[in-house]
Amino acid sequence: MAWTLHSAWRATAPYRVRIGLALKGVAYDYAAVDLLAGQQREPAYRAVNPQGLTPALDLGDGHVLTQSLAILEWLEETRPQPPILPRSAMDRQTVRTMATIVACDIHPLNNTRVGRKLHKLGLSQEAILEWTQGWIRDGFDALEPLVARHGGVFAFGDAPTIADCCLIPQVYSANRYQVDVSAWPAIAGVAARAAQNPAFQAAHPNNQPDAKPA
Fold first, then answer.
1. Which of the listed CATH numbers 3.40.50.2300, 3.90.79.10, 3.40.50.920, 3.40.30.10 matches domain 4-82?
2. Strand pairing class (4-7; 64-66)
3. Which residues, in sequence order, are CB contacts of 190 under 8 Å at separation 6+?
C-alpha cells in the first residue's frame, strides 16, 4: 500500500521528512500543498490534517501521521535500518537536542504563518527579514558548538541522524533569508557534505514536483 506525503517543496518541516524517508529508502507518492495559496487551510486538506500544516504522511490504511519530528521518530521505531538515531541514550539525547534547537527554537518563529501575522501587524518586509535572520542566528549560535564537539561527516558522527534531517532544511532556509552560514563553520561543513549524499539530494526542494523556478 503506497504512502502519500503531503508536502510543500521549500517548507522546512516536510523537507525534514523527505530526508528521513530517503535515508530509510521508503518510496512514497507526493501530494503538493501550495502554502502561499492557502491550500493548507482549505477543507480538502483539513480533512487530511485538521491542524492545516505540512507535512502529513498518509499511510493509506486509515492512519495519517503529522508533525515532522514525530514522523521521524516513528520511522526510526518501525524501520530501524539504517538508523537515524545513535545507540546510546546519551547520544540520542544529544541528537534530539540538536534537532529541537531547529524544530522548536528557530523554525516556529519564522515560518510562513508567523511571517503572515507579522505583516498583518504592520511590520515592513525589511523588519520581518531582520526578525527571521535574528532567530536563525541565535539558533545557529546554540547549535554550532554542539556540532563542532560531536560532529564528523554529519552533525553527530559520520552517519546521518534526525539532527541532519532538521539542520539541512534550516541551512536551506538560512540561505533563502540571506544569512551567511559560513559564520558557523561546523554547520557549514555538514551542509556541504550532506549536499553530496543521494538521500539529501533527492529531498532537496529543487527536486520536488511542485518546485518553482528561482
1. 3.40.30.10
2. unpaired
3. 147, 151, 153, 154, 155, 164, 167, 168
* pLDDT given for residue 108 in this prediction: 87
Contact 96, 86 (CB under 8 A): no
Which residue numbers in the chain have pLDDT < 50? none
What is the 8-class DSSP label of residue 213? P
pLDDT one-digit tens code per residue, 154-193: 999 999 999 999 999 999 999 999 999 999 999 999 999 9
Give pTM, 2 decimals: 0.95
**What's residue 214's pLDDT?**
67
Q: What is the CATH number of domain 89-199?
A: 1.20.1050.10
Query: Is residue 163 within 8 Å of residue 98, measured between CB atoms?
Result: yes
CA–CA separation, 21 and 106 (whole Å): 23
